[in-house]
Fold this sequence. Notes:
Layout: H1 23-39, H2 58-76, H3 83-91, H4 102-121, E1 131-134, E2 139-142, H5 143-172
Antiparallel strand pairs: 1-2
Helix pairs in contact: 1-4, 1-5, 2-4, 2-5
Amino acid sequence: MTQENTPEAWLNGPVANVPPLLQPVAHALLQARKEVNQLVKDFPAAGLWQKPAGAASVGFHLQHVTGVVDRLFTYAKGDSLDASQFKALISEGDASLNEKTVDELVQLFNLQVDKALQQLSETDEATLTETRGVGRAQIPSPVQGLLFHAAEHTMRHVGQLLVTVKVIKAGLHS
């Protein structure tokens, strides 16, 4: 069975070492990783920063899904963002500040998903209702909300990435 024919992540059973209440987060992140890797396989380098009809570029989406998971999982641990995270946030989608290839951006996302899965496996379910501060304003959010939002926000961008990839590939090949 090829990767394209495998069931969606949530149909593959529990993710090892991830607490039961966090399985949906793990499944969504694994599904996002699968879809991102399939979508941009053999994606033309010339299309990375194109913005068809003013939509966000493929490069932006790849950076953003990596950054969202990184930032929201950082807040879920109760930590603040560091200088490298702020720099990454500022550079999201700015082609002049980015020299990475499609494959390099995908690899960074894959690594971020691995880090997130590790953090999920280390998360005590008893902490899920604890409040963490988000951003400089320290807006309160429960740990569970941060983790679930990271997953759903990532999947939202994967959907946008799918459309953008199809539009760019159609334009480059027509």
